[in-house]
Amino acid sequence: MPDGPREAGHPGEAGHRAGRLRDAEPDSPHQGDGPDRVRDAERELDRPREAGSGSDRPREAGREPRRLRDAGRGSDHPGAPEGPGAGGSGPRRAPLRVLVITNMYPNREEPSFGLFVQGQVEALQAAGVQVDVLAMPRRGRGWRGRLAYAGWALRGLGRLLRRYDAVHAHYAVPSGVIGLWFRRLAGRPLVVTVHGSDVLVLPDRFPRLAPVLRRVLHGADHVIAVSWFLRDRIVDRFGVPPERITVQSAGIDTRVFRPGAPGAETVRARYGGQPLVVFAGNLIRQKGVDILVRAFARVRERLGSGHLVLVGPSVDEAYQDLLRARVASLGLDGHVTFAGPRPPAEVAAFMAAADVFVLPSLEEGLGLVVLEALACGVPVVGSRVGGIPEIVQDGDYGLLVPPGDVNALAGAIRRVLEDASFRQRARQYGPRVAAGHDRRRRAAELVVLYRSLQAGAEGTRRSSDAAARRRPKGD
After folding, report:
1. In 10 A of CB 228, how many CB atoms?
2. Average pLDDT over residues 111-127
3. 356-359/276-280 β-pairing
4. CA–CA separation, 31 vs 142, rounded Å?
5. Who's near 74: CB < 8 A, 6+ residues apart?
6. What is the pLDDT of residue 63?
7. Cα–Cα–Cα angle for 156, 157, 162, nearest 5°?
8. What is the domain range of residue 445?
9. Are 240 and 443 in contact, with CB atoms under 8 Å apart?
10. Residues near 472 by Cβ (< 8 Å), separated by ≥ 6?
11. Residue 438 DSSP symbol
């Protein structure tokens, strides 16, 4: 939890953190997933809107989905700032005010939890957008607790909503549920970013959430998918019109993740200059870390040296115990390091020091860590799943393997470690690929989207007001 609650609209610490709404706990958070709570959510979403709250309006059709324009391409500082005086001699514009709702955001206990959301918030602030963050408490994270939190947020914050120009929810459930309620209360446009597990895992694991997901995705004014793979899943499974979906990653900080990042030489020296294999991410089954450990054992047996570093938190203690037992059983004690969660600068140092970065996921929405590794000029070996093939050009600066295939993974890692020219191509081309995903550029694209939705919402309100004035008083 953060140090002390802050009301919406108050700036964060030293101007770097977003204003943060109170992280109040729901009255009775419970672990587990309750069908009654899901049914309650469905009923809430089915309720008619209040008069004047902004009813569903026809969506513009026509153009196929695309990435938002790369605003500021070719500049060292992509994107024009928002706010008074921005853009030179043009008319002064009031700065945008955006409420970000997220169930993932760094806090004192878990400083690396949802860093990609925090990074986007900070990039928006740097672009002149006034951002407040409604972050879900980490306790009571079962679905009953999450829906109870949504009810608290609805009751306590409805009166504040009209101060915002847009609401942006990260993850369709549970954040998108809150966002849709807010949209109905205040008539402000809603953007929902789908990151992966919300549409890839939850509908199958909890079938009762599928209709809730459908309502959120159809009720949002715009949906952002972090990969084309996710975009296609949203269209095919949930029937969302393609023209209302934009494919856009959250972006990475290319000022931090870059070749020769500070600390890289120290990391290499720490492991004696051996071939260095690095993984970064949550140590969970979906990331295939146990498969990587088994593959690394074969690589080390073949090469006679090498060190594996696993960077990231372990939220599944049983799985971490399995990993440690696997390391011991394969005789890898002393050759595998569990580095734990690290701040971005230290993650960048590990990546820049690596000879190869590996992401052996069994499922993946996009894989921002792949972009971060490429930004550091490091070749990537990744699974051919989800959005990873959209980033990694197989055979050029990275290699793709079937998910779960230990032999293929070991062979790909060994090929990179034995081929100096391959590693050189990654140093040359990787940063160029990653530059297109700089988070400042992505923030500038979001500003364009917010402004477009704001203009549409204001036009709708003006038309409604004009119609009300023309209506005979007796009606």
Report:
1. 16
2. 93
3. parallel
4. 4
5. none
6. 33
7. 150
8. 13-27+37-251+439-469
9. no
10. none
11. B
- Comparing 463 with 201, the larger pLDDT belongs to 201
Q: How confident is the model at residue 79 (pLDDT cuts 50, 70, 90)?
A: very low
Q: Measured on CA atoms in the order 143, 149, 151, 153, is the torsion positive or negative?
A: negative
Would you list the DSSP string of 214-267? HHHHHHSSEEEESSHHHHHHHHHHH---GGGEEE----B-TTTS-TT-TTHHHH
- Condensed to tens digits (0 to 9), the pLDDT of residues 348-384 reads 999 999 999 999 999 999 999 999 999 999 999 999 9
Same domain, yes or no, for 233 and 337? Answer: no
Flag whether 112 is in a domain: yes
What is the token pair recorded at 270? 């720490």
Q: What is the pLDDT of residues 200-217, one digit of tens each?
A: 888 888 888 899 999 999
Token pair recorded at residue 421: 């020219």
Please give the helix or strand (H or E) that residue 401 lies within, else none: strand 398-401
Residue 4 lies in a domain: no
* CA-based nearest residue to 17, from 30, 2, 28, 29: 2
Q: Which two tokens stand for residue 398?
A: 């990275």
Of residues 467 and 444, which shows the higher confidence score? Answer: 444
Taking the C-alpha atoms of residue 432 and residue 16, their distance in angstroms, rounded to an integer, is 27
Please give the residue that has the higher pLDDT: either 185 or 89: 185
- Sign of CA pseudo-dihedral 272, 412, 356, 116: negative
Task: Dump pLDDT digits (tens) for 168-194.
Answer: 999 999 899 989 988 988 889 999 999
| Residue 17 placed within a domain | yes
Taking CA 307 as the corner, what is the angle to CA 302 and CA 309, rounded to the nearest 5 degrees? 135
Helical spans, DSSP H, in 60-192: 115-126, 143-157, 175-186
**Closest CA relative to residue 95, chosen from 86, 82, 112, 78:** 82
3 state DSSP class of 20: strand
Global pTM reads 0.77
Q: How many residues does the chain have?
A: 475
CB-CB neighbours of 140 under 10 Å: 18
Q: Are residues 305 and 324 in the same domain?
A: yes
Residue type, 237: R
pLDDT of residue 257: 98
DSSP class of residue 159 equals G
Closest CA to 8 of 182, 151, 142: 182
6 has a pLDDT exceeding 50: no
Same domain, 169 and 285: no
Answer yes or no: do 226 and 312 share one domain: no
Distances (CA, A) of 332 to 278, 285, 301, 320, 432: 15, 20, 10, 15, 36
User: Which pLDDT value is given to residue 107?
Assistant: 85
